[in-house]
Specification:
about 250 residues; alpha/beta; Rossmann fold; binds NADPH dihydro-nicotinamide-adenine-dinucleotide phosphate
Length: about 250
């Protein structure tokens, strides 16, 4: 296989749909073997697994809740058995439970923090031992522009994404001497099921605020991930790469 990721095994969380699916396909296009997780979309995961295999790479889907510490450890152990190594971890699994703070329940807060932030701890902790042994690794955490700017109605989500930035910079500092890099990709407005619920008017308003005058696609985020996963970014760690058509600058 040729490509920027030839010979690498990439593990992506939450790839049955949306951005994760886009990252899986672009990684395969660049020659990587792809292990990916999902929580509930069994059918969609199977379809993606087959699509990836048809591209001539090794691929496997794992049903695993990234927010669950034990499940995350077991999944990583299984991926290591099945693929022999993990070169790149992409923590992408995420959810929203948007509402104003006045109405936000404790459950809305905990579920978002556990799925978006604790999952990053769970999975990163599970992979670092094997990456330390091979003295190389790239960890990419999917944040969000709202983790930088904040957003009314998303206190839980923005907190989880801001937390990812602090976590990632700490990991970059702790593990840099082992040649393990850790970066954040912070997307802006990307068209997926997560953003599909917004009405036309809101969408139009968003587009007008974006210098490139279009919403993003999963492939736009995937391109940034492939770069950070590849050896082209060997000297880049602890960074937040914003992929938002210029919206936040
Ligand atoms: P989607 O809702 O389209 O897809 C979410 C994916 O995550 C699904 O594959 C889902 O699996 C999986 N998932 C959810 N919870 C878990 C869990 N506990 N364990 C394992 N997998 C899980 O979201 P997007 O593709 O839009 O978002 C992907 C990431 O990008 C998220 O972290 C999100 O916060 C971030 N992001 C998205 C933006 C956007 O505009 N769309 C903007 C900025 C950041 P299943 O299908 O089985 O439920």
């Amino acid at each position: 296989m040729n490509g920027l990721l030839a010979g690498k095994t990439v593990l992506i969380t939450g790839a049955s749909r949306g951005i994760g699916r886009g990252i899986a396909l672009k990684s395969a296009e660049q020659g990587a073997d792809v292990a990916f997780t999902y929580r509930s979309s069994v059918e969609k995961a199977k379809i993606l697994e087959n699509e990836l295999k048809s591209m001539g790479i090794k691929a496997k889907a794992y049903q695993s809740d990234a927010a669950d510490f034990v499940q995350a450890q077991k999944t990583v152990e299984q991926v290591l058995v099945d693929f022999g190594k993990i070169d790149v971890l992409i923590n992408n699994a995420g959810i929203t439970k948007d509402t104003l703070l006045l109405r936000m329940s404790e459950e809305d807060f905990d579920r978002v923090i556990n799925t978006n932030l604790k999952s990053v701890f769970n999975m990163t902790k599970a992979v670092i031992r094997s990456m330390m042994k091979q003295r190389k690794g790239s960890i990419i955490n999917i944040g969000s522009v709202v983790g930088i700017s904040g957003n009314a109605g998303q206190a839980n989500y923005a907190a989880s994404k801001a937390g990812i930035i602090g976590f990632s910079k700490s990991v970059a500092q702790e593990l840099g001497s082992r040649n393990i890099r850790c970066n954040v990709v912070a997307p802006g407005f990307i068209e997926t099921e997560m953003t599909a619920a917004l009405d036309e008017k809101v969408l139009e308003d968003w587009k007008n605020r974006i210098p490139l005058r279009r919403t993003g696609k999963p492939e736009d985020v995937a391109g940034a991930c492939v770069f950070l996963a590849s050896d082209m970014s060997d000297y880049i760690t602890g960074q937040v790469l914003v992929v938002d058509g210029g919206m936040l600058m």
